[in-house]
Design brief:
Chain lengths: ~180, ~200, ~375
């Protein structure tokens, strides 16, 4: 690879070593001081008049807007295993397995009245892969899969980021984070 | 406009064989012979059409050929045209070659390097034909349709099974064995059998 | 070994020392992400700069070949993560052009408003980080304070702060309410005052002017040659704005001016011009926002788009004016549910390719100013 002609270095050096007259030197100082003073006065105005806007996080917690897309929650009792969420998911992080419900078993319905014809055996979302785009919640016909406004769910290991929504401890979230 | 440009190319460059493909939806295309691409570009830039900006060099992989598209625009005349050249492909690993247009527009430098990196199109007479987005020791050309990811790269396993949730993907197999009836099980893993997921 | 005028450089020429190779980045704060520039310097002055890209490469173009058209939008967000809305808008327009979808008027108004708010947010980000690059810290905080207002509105509309997935094919996701419209209006009033303050604080400052005027000059010819677009092209004194030249959305009906660099503090096309173009563009955005607030009508926000989306076979190239320059989507469809090939022409990528020509003869500190002034986002460069 060739560099450009090195004479460009000399011409540019000249730019940095510009000739100064005494008048120019003083004028430069005056302009620099006056503009810096102008800037500092704006800064001082901010210091004196603007109230702090930072939220002191662990002590003060921010309330997120209602439709905020945070931690996913699936209410498995209302899920009809239609797999539309898994189809819509662009990163394929939802794993569902369901088996046909016995004909003799008592008939189940969701809160909205849709009959449940499949027994859910696995409903796992790997939230470490999830991109929180919200496409799955839009696709959900029974509105059982929702984004909650709960945002504190950092974990130490990747395995803990995988949520098995059939597990009892995660089912218990229903009362905590879903209205 | 595309007809005029095609006629102009044919009159200026012999053997360019420019032909317009009228599209039902989207933009019209102009196909030219790959060997004449440099002349075509030069003529378009220094003509009344004043195509002074090369927007984009890109390629598309088809089964038997790679189509390289040059999207050229004029910022003075407010026009834009897609010029395409077909390059026959012999195998999935072999590169194909076409003339570089770096001497016409300097922006072609990086754009052509990207096309080389992604599709394995070698631009002859390019000043610096290296990979740009992938590392230098990468194998294969990612945007070809038959591209396969390396299994091991620099002693690192690409997509190790514990990281791609193999166990969760295969959970349905366990259930199937337990049930003994495959038709009763519905599952969401699309990649294996896309039809039965519905 | 580098060559100068075809002869190997021996170190015996005019300059009596070898060139020093330095790596700027990929973790350098002034490179705005993970850009690595290998620079060969003679003391403080750069003789050659070679950008090395790809540290943030996620092969977006390969990914989307396996994803249906609606699922692409979250991926599009992740390209230019500071102007996600503009990225989405461009993508939506591309697919809508293929489908022939008509977008309802209210959705169009919302798109323009969101697009302009995003432009202000993105330029504020530029303003803050550019000041940091040149050694001023407080403008960064002021800019973020204003940007926060925009992000709040976006958060309420879409549910996310950075990667929105808000502009959908055929319309937008959520409707805006009166309270939010009022807040946007209040924001416009506040912003107009603040922008003047910011310009007095930074743009008129003597130190800032000597750091940026006559530095990193991009002439008109060079801008054309390298395919520069957006504020970089306009900073070089070219009257070119896609919103005027090839209006999309509602821009045909809106009244605004195209800002171009005039070389007020130095040559046309220097870093100061690019800075000033962005500052004035924010004023124009506010002007557009006010017109939209007056004109917004009631109505639906989603057009008719089939549930199972199949785009007819064909090819389209659609350009939109994003805060950083023109964004082009080249979509090739084979009539299926997923794109056959999608190429994104990113403006930052072409702007990075200008660095090797801009750099020789600059001081290292000026090079930082030059990188900052072309305002690149590495997510868009590497895709």
């Amino acid at each position: 690879m060739k560099t450009n002609d090195l004479s460009i270095l000399d011409t540019n050096r000249a730019r940095y070593e510009e000739d100064l007259t005494v008048g120019k030197w003083f004028r430069n100082i005056w302009v620099a001081v006056s503009t810096a003073f102008k800037g500092m006065s704006i800064t001082m105005k901010y210091v004196l008049t603007v109230k702090p806007v930072t939220i002191e996080y662990p002590e003060v917690k921010e309330e997120l807007p209602k439709n905020s897309r945070s931690r996913l929650f699936n209410d498995v009792d209302n899920c009809i295993s239609c797999m539309q969420c898994a189809d819509a998911c662009p990163v394929d992080c939802i794993y569902i397995t369901a088996v046909k419900r016995d004909k003799e078993a008592p008939k189940l319905k969701t809160d909205g009245g849709t009959p449940i014809r499949l027994d859910l055996k696995q409903y796992t979302i790997d939230t470490a892969l999830c991109c929180y785009c919200g496409l799955c919640t839009v696709a959900c016909p029974t509105e059982c899969l929702t984004h909650t406004t709960d945002y504190e769910f950092a974990q130490y290991t990747l395995g803990e980021m995988k949520y098995d929504y059939l597990a009892t401890d995660i089912r218990a979230w229903k009362h905590r984070i879903v209205e | 406009m595309h007809k005029e440009i095609a006629d102009f190319i044919n009159s200026k460059v012999s053997g360019a064989n420019a032909c317009v493909v009228e599209a039902e939806v989207g933009d019209n295309l102009i196909f030219v012979e790959a060997s004449s691409i440099l002349e075509v570009c030069k003529n378009l830039k220094n003509s009344d059409y004043d195509m002074n900006v090369l927007q984009c060099v890109t390629g598309t992989d088809y089964e038997d050929r790679i189509e390289v598209s040059y999207i050229i625009a004029s910022f003075t005349k407010n026009s834009e045209v897609i010029i395409k050249a077909k390059l026959p492909k012999t195998s999935s690993e072999a590169t194909v070659a076409i003339d570089s247009v770096c001497s016409v527009w300097k922006s072609a430098n990086f754009l052509e390097r990207e096309t080389y990196d992604m599709l394995g199109v070698v631009f002859t007479n390019h000043p610096d034909m290296r990979r740009i987005l992938c590392p230098d020791d990468w194998e294969g050309y990612p945007l070809r349709k038959d591209y396969k990811v390396q299994e091991v790269y620099n002693d690192m396993v690409v997509d190790p099974p514990e990281k791609v949730n193999k166990a969760d993907h295969n959970f349905f197999k366990e259930i199937m064995e337990k049930m003994g009836d495959e038709k009763k099980v519905a599952y969401s893993w699309k990649q294996e059998e896309p039809e039965s997921a519905q | 070994m580098i060559e100068i005028n075809g002869k190997p450089y021996t170190g015996q020429e005019k300059i009596k020392s070898d060139l020093l190779t330095l790596n700027m980045g990929p973790q350098h704060p002034a490179t705005h992400g993970v850009l690595r520039v290998e620079i060969k310097t003679d003391s403080e002055i750069i003789a050659q700069a070679i950008p090395h890209l790809g540290y943030l490469h996620r092969c977006f173009e390969k990914h989307v070949e396996h994803i249906d058209y609606r699922g692409v939008i979250p991926f599009v967000d992740r390209m230019d993560y500071l102007a996600s809305m503009s990225m989405e808008w461009g993508y939506a327009l591309t697919v809508e052009k293929m489908l022939g979808t008509e977008v309802p008027k209210r959705a169009e108004y919302l798109r323009v408003m969101i697009g302009e708010l995003q432009r202000i947010a993105s330029h504020l980000m530029f303003f803050g980080t550019y000041a940091i690059d040149l050694g001023a810290f407080s403008p960064f905080l002021y800019a973020f304070q204003d940007r926060e207002d925009i992000l709040r509105i976006f958060e309420e509309l879409s549910g996310a702060r950075l990667l929105y997935n808000y502009i959908w094919l055929g319309g937008v996701w959520n409707d805006v309410n009166d309270d939010q419209l009022k807040r946007i209006e209040a924001f416009c009033d506040k912003m107009e005052e603040n922008l003047k303050k910011y310009h007095a604080l930074v743009g008129e400052n003597k130190i800032f002017i000597s750091r940026t005027a006559n530095v990193g000059v991009v002439s008109k010819e060079m801008a054309y040659e390298y395919g520069a677009t957006g504020p970089v092209l306009r900073g070089s004194g070219v009257d070119w704005d896609l919103r005027k030249e090839r209006p999309y959305g509602l821009y045909k009906e809106l009244d605004f001016d195209v800002i171009k660099g005039e070389g007020l503090k130095g040559q046309v096309g220097d870093c100061w011009d690019r800075y000033y173009v962005r500052m004035l563009e924010m004023h124009e955005s506010i002007k557009i926002l006010r017109q939209c607030l007056d004109g917004i009508e009631e109505g639906s926000i989603m057009g008719k788009v089939p549930k199972v989306l199949k785009v007819p076979a064909g090819e389209v190239y659609m350009r939109t004016e994003c805060p950083r320059g023109e964004l082009g989507y080249h979509l090739i469809s084979d009539g299926g549910k997923t794109p056959y090939r999608m190429k994104v022409k990113s403006s930052c990528y072409t702007h990075v390719s200008m660095l090797p020509e801009m750099a020789p003869g600059m001081m290292i500190a000026d090079f930082v100013a030059a990188i900052g002034s072309i305002d690149i986002v590495l997510g868009e460069v590497d895709r």
